[in-house]
Amino acid sequence: MILKGFSFGMILQAAVGPLCVFVITTALNSGFWVAFYAVAAVTLVDALFVMLAILGIGAMMKSDRAKAIMKWVGGLVIIYYGIGILLSAFGISIIPSFSTQNMIGEGASVFLTALIMTISNPLTIVFWAGVFSTRIASGKDSRRDVFLFGLGAVLSTLIFLSAVAFIFSLFNPIMTPEASKWLNVAAGAVLTGFGIFMLLKKQK
């Protein structure tokens, strides 16, 4: 059952989202271990969301009003961080975390940034609530099976993003200040685009 959850999670990972872009940018700019702080934050929140979904809490967030509020909160937070990363390329800081220099301090700020970006999009809970409510309602899975499926899905996040961080960190030694600057411009623009798309996307 863990393998089923892992396979399902890996399929979802194929859709590159704003957190994946953030991990890639961090790995290129600061190396694997700093990027892994972001991976840990995303995995932690995913585990929390999956647990809440299994417990049925996500079902309470399925109303149109709740979805609309979550959509705006998530979109605005991603736009804010996108603009923050873009402006940091030109030495303008609107997010204190981007000015940290030492690895431990930088890792901690990256962890916090990824944590806020992930938790600000609780629509993930609604998605997992639908997945797990369907599995439970089918009567084919025991509560233990559902938890194992969720564990596999969370492991897919950890392994996929860790692999992404490792692969892109290999290019960190050849990153010049100029390349890093334009990388942040591109990443900031992409994240801002993700946020705008989230706000403009019609609610189902």
Structure notes:
With 204 residues, this protein is an all-alpha fold. The protein has 8 helices and no strands. The chain has helices at 2-13, 18-30, 32-54, 64-88, 103-119, 123-138, 143-169, 177-200. Helix 2 runs antiparallel to helix 5 (103-119). The chain is globular and about 55 Å long. 38% of the residues are buried. The mean pLDDT is 80.
Helix content: over 70%
Class of secondary structure makeup: mainly alpha
| Series of secondary-structure elements, N-terminal to C-terminal | HHHHHHHH
Number of helices: 8
- Overall geometric form: globular
Total number of strands = 0
Distance, first to last CA: 30 Å
- Indicate the low-confidence ranges by residue numbers: none
The major beta sheet can be summarized as:
none
Average of the residue pLDDT scores: 80
Please compute the radius of gyration using only Cα atoms. 18 Å
Percent in strands: under 5%
Main attributes of the structure:
204 residues; mainly alpha; 8 helices; globular
Layout of secondary structure:
Blueprint: H1 2-13, H2 18-30, H3 32-54, H4 64-88, H5 103-119, H6 123-138, H7 143-169, H8 177-200
Short précis:
The chain is mainly α and 204 residues long. Helices cover 77% and strands 0% of the residues. The chain is built from eight helices and no strands.
